[in-house]
From TrEMBL:
Membrane-topology annotation of the record: Multi-pass membrane protein
UniProt KW keywords: Membrane, Transmembrane, Transmembrane helix, Transport
Descriptive protein name: Predicted arabinose efflux permease, MFS family
PROSITE patterns in the cross-refs: MFS
């Protein structure tokens, strides 16, 4: 039975409802963080293949393009229905992966899993917003809980993945989804209110869904991400041309259609949301550059084993969790501006520390890098999510949160290119120092953008 009653005096969304929504939202970081540990096992079973990088990349691309689309679907068909349908896709993709006769089938299964995991976060936020509106309650720290769930999963995902792959082989990264999906479906079925009846008819659905607009959106996002992936080794410049054409056509289409998938004109007018997406892109270029580059440098330049490098990354995730808790409370009391300024100041400091740590043999500096780098991952993530939530109307919040996720993944791809240019495959001290100054420079730019944002000032409430 869904949680349809609110006790007298309740002013917050029940934690059992929030916990039910978090249970499915952890599937995306779980699948992303565990798969790297399965590559060796996959190679042993299927042999070396050019498809191997796509085992990781396919899910990122699928999730990036599907996140805002699933938010739009949730607005039309009901966020609870789409959330549960996404769980079904994850289960189907995992089953296909377990039965895969070749690596190509594993890649296809990862695409299906990526499409499924894309539905949870945007529709979880939409369900939280709907509950708060219906019950006239505050959402409390549920956005923070969603972020913390993801960060805890990222922190322990590699350890769990290594253990399970060692016991069960690469199939473990598929098996792990089964109990989580079943548990999440049961929790959502019991503790989350049912959707209202669908009011859109089958005839009205295609124009309301804006299939041409979504097709062009997929075109420019996929071509951009594939170009960035290719830029690490051999840039495929024709993909950049596809990106430009699809992006121009997408903007023209969305500006002139009656029911746009993404109202570009409204997005530009909504300065708070537009500026937040820019800040999110800059934040995640810097974050992922450090997140990917730091363990690479520790192994190549400092001689740490993969296990030791992974252990050194744990403070980053742990501090991110603590900062998410602090940021959630600070946003509720003082607004997101202080959180974003504090997180960005830590990003600048982290970049400077990285630049000096590159030439130092002091072990404590490595720990300090991980600690300081974890602050923006908590502060900026919560701060930006809070702005998106407050700046977006109820009917568009799922699409907006999906677009927020897309921006994160695009930032990760830009970070991969930056790493290749600045650090290179050898990950020398000089390359790591360049990465530090690059991170600090991005932080200065991000701080300027944050301080200049009128929508974040107290006299301009979001």
């Amino acid at each position: 039975m869904a949680d349809t009653m609110t006790r007298p005096g309740d002013t917050r969304l029940p934690w059992r409802t929030g916990g039910a929504l978090v249970s499915g939202s952890v599937l995306q970081p779980l699948n992303s963080s565990m798969i790297a540990l399965a590559i060796v096992s996959l190679t042993a079973d299927f042999g070396a293949s050019d498809l191997m990088p796509w085992v990781i990349a396919a899910m990122y691309i699928a999730t990036a393009v599907a996140a805002p689309v699933s938010g739009r679907l949730g607005a039309l068909l009901g966020p609870r229905r789409v959330y549960l349908a996404g769980l079904g896709l994850i289960l189907a993709g995992s089953a296909l992966g377990l039965l895969a006769p070749s690596l190509a089938w594993v890649v296809v299964s990862r695409v299906i899993v990526g499409l499924g995991t894309a539905t949870q976060y945007p529709n979880a936020v939409a369900l939280v917003r709907r509950y708060a509106r219906r019950r006239h309650v505050r959402t409390g720290g549920i956005l923070g809980l969603l972020a913390i769930g993801a960060q805890v999963t990222v922190a322990f995902g590699p350890t769990l993945g290594g253990l399970l792959v060692g016991l069960l082989g690469w199939q473990a990264v598929m098996w792990i989804n089964v109990p989580v999906v079943v548990a999440s479906a049961l929790l959502v079925g019991v503790f989350v209110d049912r959707d209202d009846p669908v009011t859109v008819t089958r005839r009205e659905l295609p124009p309301a869904f804006d299939l041409p607009g979504i097709g062009l959106f997929l075109g420019w996002v996929v071509s951009l991400m594939m170009f960035l992936l290719s830029a690490v080794d051999e840039p495929q410049w024709w993909l950049l041309g596809v990106f430009v054409v699809c992006a121009v056509l997408f903007v023209q289409r969305e500006r002139h259609t009656a029911s746009p998938f993404l109202d570009v004109s409204a997005l530009v007018r909504n300065r708070a949301l537009f500026a937040t997406l820019i800040r999110t892109l800059l934040t995640y270029v810097a974050f992922y550059a450090v997140y990917f580059g730091f363990p690479q440098w520790m192994q190549a330049a400092r001689g740490l084993s993969p296990a030791q490098a992974g252990l050194m990354m744990f403070p980053l995730a742990a501090i991110g969790v603590v900062c998410s808790l602090v940021a959630t409370r600070t946003c509720r009391i003082a607004g997101p501006r202080r959180v974003l300024v504090g997180g960005t100041a830590a990003m600048i400091a982290g970049g400077v520390i990285i630049a000096f740590a590159a030439g130092s043999r002091v072990p404590a500096l490595l720990v300090l890098v991980a600690v300081v780098a974890g602050i923006p991952s908590g502060f900026n993530n919560i701060g930006n999510q809070t702005v998106v939530d407050r700046a977006t109307p109820d009917g568009d919040v799922g699409t907006a949160m999906g677009l927020y996720r897309t921006t994160q993944f695009i930032g990760a791809n830009f970070a991969a290119v930056a790493l290749d240019v600045l650090v290179g495959p050898d990950a020398t001290d000089a390359g790591f120092e360049r990465l530090g100054w690059f991170t600090a420079a991005l932080g200065v730019l991000l701080l300027a953008v944050t301080v200049a944002a009128r929508s974040l000032r107290p006299e301009h409430p979001i």
